[in-house]
Structures are given as C-alpha cells and as structure tokens.
User: Fold this.
Amino acid sequence: MSTYFAPDGTRLALRVHGEGDGDPVVCVPGGPTDSRYLSDLGGLSGRRRLAVPDLRGTGRSAIPDDPASYRCDRLVDDIEALRVHLGLDRIDLLGHSAGANIATQYAARHPHRLRRLALIGPGTRAVGLDITGQTRRRTARLREGEPWFPTAFAALEAITEGTGTDWDAISPFFYGRWDTAAQRHHADSRPANTEAVARFGEEDAFDPPATRAALARFTAPVLLLTGEFDLNSPPEVVAGLADLFPDAKPVVQSEAGHYPWLDDPERFVTVTGDFLRRP
Assistant:
C-alpha cells in the first residue's frame, strides 16, 4: 500500500497488484467503497499491473476536510493526481460501476491523457442514461429459475414502485451465482462512508449534455463489458452508452452479474486483457 496526495492535500491510498515493468492500468472502484472488493480483478493482474486507488474517505484513504469533494466530478481531479503521481503521460483507465462515472468524466475532461478506456458494469449517470423499472424487471426475470427469485423479485418490485427499501433482498441479482463466495463478497463490499455515497451524485455532480458532447470527440478505444444478468448495468443500457463513443466495443458476458471477474474469471481476463493490449 502506497499513498499520494490530491490537489487539495487529502492523502489517498493506492493498492498495486501484479508485477512487471509495464505501465499499470488505473482501476477506479465503485461504491464509493473500499477498493479491496476489486481484488486483482479475477487475475487480470497476471496480464497487467493494476493501480487501484481507494477513493477519498474510503478504505485507507483519508477523510477530506471538505465533504463537497466527495462529488463525482471532483473525484476526477484525484484520478488526474494519480496519473501525475505514477509519472505517466497517458494511462489505460478502467472504471467499475459508479467508478465508471468518474472514468467517463475523466475521458471527457482529459481525453489526451488516455490510451484506452474500459468500463465494467458501468454506471451511466454521468451521461444521463436512465434505467427504467421495466428494464430492471426484464433483466431480473432471467433468474426466474433460482430458488431465491420470488423473495428477491418481490423486493425489487417494491423498490421500483417506491414502496420498499430492502436493498439487501435483491443482492442475489448482482451475482451470476448466489453462493457462499458471492455472499461473502457482498458483505465485504458494503460502503462504510455513508456521506461519501450520499454526496457522490449530489447537485452539479453531472453535466450529461457536456459529457456526451465531449465523448463524441473521444477517439481512444473503449471497452464496455457488462454481465448478462447485471441489474445495475443491463446490456441494453450499456449498448446505449457504447453509442456515445466513436470507437466502442460492447461485450455481454454470459451468465454473469455485476462482478463478472467473479462469475467467470477466465472469460473476463481474456476479454479485458486482450483489449488492454490493443494497439
């Protein structure tokens, strides 16, 4: 574990996975939560070194003096500070879930600093793509044969209708297999800093029209990988995100949820690793 400093002086922690002399891939976690849930992305560190920051106020990073700096657009500055800390002119950037919103805004603001962009189970708030209740239900029904489905689907219905808040009950939808390993991963991935979560998407955190306009001019290659069962990032919504880039490849990983590196590590590492080697 090493540290670096944000422009406002906040001390930020960095995990590095893998060995080798090549430039690392900067991997932005979602949540915002402790980046340990990413681990080594199913063995991707065997193909490339991974530089994985703990976002401010999460994991081993310090709590900032200004709580407004938890906002998504402000976190882009922390990623730029990491690039400078690593001494790299350009980086390969990977963002997962809510972290994809940070990565997307980074691409919009610093396109000349990116070689490649990989968005995994991406959040789409930065570009204003909404996920309807109908889309979530349609994705959820792919799991009708699972023993936990009736209870989880009832909770999902209540949440989408605004009458329920039992988010734990729908957790099985986010994994390709709701086994002991998935349950342990879910428990370990819960955000601990509720203020960081609450302020991440507050007013002015996103400017979808400006971000869309910038992405239309973004020429670096983009991988958008999501799971077939991903309730957070359904394939049809991720396909819409791909349409915003000039050079984007959408990939749907079969029988995978929101954490595809857990559901089929070999498939995930092959697709993502090959993309990150793309000229």
